[in-house]
Design a protein that fits this description.
Layout (H helix, E strand, L loop, with lengths): L3 E5 L3 E6 L20 H8 L23 E7 L2 H12 L4 E9 L6 E10 L7 E4 L10 E12 L3 E8 L6 H8 L26 E9 L5 E5 L4 H9 L2
Parallel strand pairs: 3-9
Antiparallel strand pairs: 1-2, 2-3, 4-8, 4-9, 5-6, 5-7, 7-8, 9-10
């Protein structure tokens, strides 16, 4: 599988991840038929990544879901890995996503703040928990901001800025406000509309701003992939 490297130096790589590609095998038994992951491809190009971090993640700094495309940071040494991960842990990284959500959002700007934890009914999913529910002391605070970019007949294109970095945060939050991400088969509602020819969730990590080891702050950008661009062009 081919993918672009948007930036590289002695410390980091910035990868433009295509959809339908697992980043690393958290649960190898779920990778069908020995399917290659992003880290497999990167190790072929940069074998020294085996000396960074721990298997199977190696130098991968953060994650995207299999069917989410866009920017991924990879550290090329352990000093860089620790430096970059600390910025994610302290929520100093600015990340933006493009998402097409089902329905017409009422406001042009909004903020979603909830507690999120794993769903007890479906272990694959995350779930919003209310503050008074039992066991919420172990759930994690999440915050997502969004602004409307374009409105269509049955959908809204939004730029999303997650202020925290929880698993499936964007998908969980938009499902919670009854505007799930278009094409999302895990968090979408039964019989919800889906744009013609959309065969994955419409979610793309479009930009990321972070401080590099030399002290310079850099912002990296990824264009909307062709498959999602075609969806937008065909919407009314």
């Amino acid at each position: 599988m081919e993918f672009d490297i948007l930036y590289g130096d002695e410390n980091i790589l910035v990868v433009d991840k295509p959809p339908r590609l697992v980043i690393f095998p958290e649960q190898p038994n779920l990778i069908a038929g020995g399917e290659k992951t992003l880290i497999d491809y990167l190790l072929e190009k940069f074998p020294d990544l085996k000396n960074v971090g721990r298997a199977p993640r190696y130098g991968i700094v953060h994650r995207l879901d299999k069917n989410t495309s866009g920017i991924i940071l990879v550290a090329k040494n352990n000093t860089a890995l620790s430096f970059l991960q600390k910025q994610f842990q302290t929520e100093k990284v600015i990340k933006n996503y493009l998402a097409l959500v089902v329905g017409n959002l009422k406001n042009n700007w909004g903020k979603i703040e909830t507690l999120i934890g794993r769903s007890k009914k479906d272990r694959r999913k995350q779930k919003v928990y209310l503050p008074h529910e039992p066991g919420t002391e172990r759930k994690r605070r999440t915050e997502t901001e969004y602004r409307v970019l374009r409105r269509f007949e049955n959908y809204t294109l939004v730029e999303v800025t997650p202020k925290t970095g929880r698993k499936h945060q964007i998908r969980t939050h938009f499902a919670y406000i009854n505007h799930p991400v278009a094409g999302d088969t895990l968090y979408g509602f039964k019989n919800q509309p889906c744009p013609e020819n959309l065969n994955r969730q419409f979610l793309h990590a479009s930009s990321l701003k972070i401080k590099l080891l030399g002290g310079e702050e850099r912002e990296f950008e990824s264009k909307l992939p062709e498959d999602l661009e075609k969806i937008i062009k065909n919407l009314k």
